[in-house]
Design goal:
It is a single chain. The chain is of the alpha+beta class. It folds into 2 domains: 194 residues, Arp2/3 complex 21 kDa subunit ARPC3, CATH 1.10.1760; 155 residues, Reverse transcriptase/Diguanylate cyclase domain (Alpha-Beta Plaits, 2-Layer Sandwich), CATH 3.30.70. The protein has 13 helices and 10 strands. The N and C termini lie far apart (82 Å). The model has no long low-confidence stretch (mean pLDDT 88).
Length: 362
């Protein structure tokens, strides 16, 4: 019996490893692909258990409900129902006297109850909720034995403790590993975020910006680099202090982040920011930059001595297919210099020709 229980646990832990590997690739896969692989993994695990029954006395059972219920808890109906249909069909094809009761009481009722309970009362991965859930599911699965099996009361009395411990114990063990994997993934994501982002503003750092801009740029679309610099920032630090200066940097970064979905932004250094933007042409990219300039100008920045009015100077350069990122950044920086030289609070477009445009504030 112990060997059979361990075999079922090995299948459950193998399933867990597959799900962890799948979650590690979730940034590369669509939600539909993740759901499809989850259905495949859970269905395979349940079917493997059909061939690895736990033998106790003259009775045979397995832990098939555990993977199905966890799938219902974590991914809901769209994943649980297909997995339930696949495994139920497989079990019916295998046949045997206990096929139909095993499907109804060991698979269908526990899965459907979990879906309903999860809809109205979020179960999650809390140990207490998992314990109560699987205790109730064990009762749903095993209590009908009293009525549908010859000498059902005696059978229930003989196997209930082994069944209860194996089902609830394996569920809590799986829950433990799922929580540990989730914590490790969360920690890894946090470390990756800190490695890729500026700690003050939350924008990307330059290493991350260069990597993302290089890999996600589409040469067939018109791409632009925008440089943004806060005007008179040294005076803000000298007059109001570095804490206020840091707050200004964070608020300007927030405005930049909210400027559009197709913008990759980073803190270039000090009070300077860099953006990669895809647009349909010169007029549109100038409008994007002008919106950023205007939004910053119209946003009141608070300090201990009242409200600050912040402005920025902006330079734009097109990133053509033959250009390197370094050369485009240099050109956009030249546009930024022209904005500063022309009186600040301006947008300057560097086309590389005589048609350069400079926009002043209204």
């Amino acid at each position: 019996m112990i060997q059979s229980i361990l075999s079922n646990l090995a299948v459950i832990l193998l399933l867990h490893l597959c799900i962890v590997a799948l979650n590690n690739q979730r940034h590369r896969l669509s939600s539909r692909s993740i759901r499809g692989f989850s259905i495949l993994f859970v269905s395979t695990a349940v079917i493997m258990m059909f061939y690895l029954p736990i033998q106790f006395g003259g009775y045979r059972f397995d832990l098939r409900m555990v993977p199905l219920v966890f799938l219902a808890v974590t991914q809901g109906m769209k994943a649980a129902i297909p997995a339930l249909l696949i495994t139920s069909t497989w079990r019916m094809v295998l046949g045997g006297d206990g096929a139909f009761p095993g499907i109804i009481y060991g698979m269908v009722l526990p899965t459907l109850f979990t879906l309903v309970a999860n809809r109205f009362y979020r179960i999650g991965l809390l140990y207490s909720r998992q314990f109560y859930l699987f205790s109730f599911l064990w009762l749903i699965s095993d209590f009908p034995i009293i009525f549908v099996v010859p000498r059902g009361g005696e059978v229930f009395e003989e196997i209930f403790l082994v069944r209860f411990i194996s089902i609830v114990g394996s569920a809590l063990l799986l829950n433990f590993f799922v929580i540990q994997a989730s914590n490790e993934m969360r920690l890894k994501e946090q470390l990756q975020f800190y490695a890729d982002h500026d700690p003050l503003t939350g924008l990307r750092n330059m290493r991350s910006f260069i990597d993302r801009a290089t890999h996600f740029r589409q040469p067939r679309r018109e791409t632009y680099i925008i440089m943004v610099d806060i005007d008179n920032f040294k005076e803000i630090n000298d007059t109001y202090g570095h804490l206020i200066g840091d707050d200004v940097l964070k608020q300007v970064a927030r405005i930049i982040q909210e400027s559009g979905r197709d913008i990759i932004s980073a803190r270039y250094g000090g009070e300077e920011f860099i953006l990669m933007v895809e647009a349909d042409g010169e007029d549109e990219i100038i409008q994007v930059a002008e919106n950023i300039r205007r939004n910053i100008e119209q946003t009141p920045f608070s300090s201990d001595d009242g409200t600050l009015h912040i402005t920025v100077s902006i330079g734009i350069a097109p990133w053509r297919e033959q250009d390197t990122l370094v050369s485009v950044i240099h050109k956009a920086d030249q546009g930024l210099y022209q904005s500063k030289k022309s009186g600040k609070n301006r947008v300057h477009y560097m086309s590389g020709s005589d048609s350069e445009k400079s926009l002043t504030h209204p």
